[in-house]
């Protein structure tokens, strides 16, 4: 049996605890709250803290669930019990010249795409990464789904990532596909594994649950890292099922 005090369960957000960019359901919220009473738990998402908090139902809801750690932007903004313990700065790390070269290329690439719809906010600048979105982050839920369906058929984001890697690998950039509609760009090494530095000294066992664990997905690196036990999930219901199985294996009931 695992030592519960030395074990942490770490969850991705989109596709793992919530549907993509949707708010957590009452069922999953109640379930996670009960899990947090038995084990240390944390969140790690690619979105910024505002979006993650929104998806958890707001700050009060997030606090009630009992997560000890919340890692936004892949852990580049790290919080423990509501207090910031780590914060990286993309501008200082990469410099303006590399940033603008990447952004200019992406905007030019978007201009060449013919899509069913294009809306606003194609580039979202965050503290530790840049989020590129071919359809635009201000798209409606229907437009989001429309793009996602097309992307699954035509691999629009996969093809863009291929071009980005060919052009900007030497500049130290890495790219991953996340959620339904976007691509994350960040310095090499600034993927979700970044958050593990805050956990590996205090926990002997780190379970990670995520949906985009295949190569190219934004959960792949942390899922396959030797410091974690990775669990590939399909959706929030599957996350609940797999967590219950893990608890049962350890003789824990909720």
Automatic annotation (TrEMBL):
Pfam families documented for this protein: PMM
Gene3D superfamilies, per database record: 3.30.1240.20, HAD superfamily/HAD-like
Any one Gene Ontology cellular component term annotated for this protein: cytosol
Catalytic reaction list: alpha-D-mannose 1-phosphate = D-mannose 6-phosphate
Subcellular location field: Cytoplasm
Binding of alpha-D-mannose 1-phosphate, residues: 21, 126, 137, 144, 182, 184
EC number: 5.4.2.8
Chief subcellular location: cytoplasm
Keywords, sorted A to Z: Cytoplasm, Isomerase, Magnesium, Metal-binding
Domain of life: Eukaryota
Cofactor(s) recorded in Swiss-Prot or TrEMBL: Mg(2+)
UniProt keyword annotation of Heme present: no
SUPFAM superfamilies recorded: HAD-like (SSF56784)
Record has NAD as a keyword: no
Active site (record annotation): 12, 14
Reported function: Involved in the synthesis of the GDP-mannose and dolichol-phosphate-mannose required for a number of critical mannosyl transfer reactions.
Assembly and interaction partners: Homodimer.
UniProt similarity note: Belongs to the eukaryotic PMM family.
This protein's name: Phosphomannomutase
Organism ancestry: Eukaryota, Metazoa, Echinodermata, Eleutherozoa, Asterozoa
């Amino acid at each position: 049996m695992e030592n519960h005090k030395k074990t942490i369960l770490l969850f991705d957000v989109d596709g793992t605890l919530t549907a993509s960019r949707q708010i957590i359901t009452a069922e999953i919220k109640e379930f996670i709250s009960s899990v947090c009473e038995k084990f240390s738990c944390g969140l790690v998402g690619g979105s910024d803290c505002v979006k993650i908090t929104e998806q958890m139902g707001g700050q009060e809801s997030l606090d009630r669930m009992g997560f000890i750690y919340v890692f936004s932007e892949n852990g580049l903004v790290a919080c423990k019990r509501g207090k910031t313990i780590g914060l990286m700065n993309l501008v200082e790390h990469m410099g303006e010249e590399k940033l603008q070269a990447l952004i200019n290329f992406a905007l030019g690439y978007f201009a060449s795409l013919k899509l069913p719809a294009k809306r606003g906010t194609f580039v979202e600048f965050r503290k530790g990464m840049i989020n590129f979105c071919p359809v635009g982050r201000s798209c409606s839920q229907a437009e989001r789904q429309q793009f996602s369906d097309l992307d699954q058929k035509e691999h629009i984001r996969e093809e863009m990532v291929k071009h980005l890697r060919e052009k900007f690998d030497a500049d130290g950039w890495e790219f991953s596909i996340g959620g339904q509609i976007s691509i994350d760009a960040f310095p090499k090494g600034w993927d979700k594994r970044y958050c593990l530095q805050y956990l590996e000294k205090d926990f002997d066992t780190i379970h990670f649950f995520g949906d985009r664990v295949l190569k190219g997905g934004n959960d792949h690196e942390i899922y396959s890292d030797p410091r974690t036990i990775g669990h590939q999930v399909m959706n929030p219901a599957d996350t609940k099922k797999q967590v219950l199985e893990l608890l049962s294996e350890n003789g824990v009931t909720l």
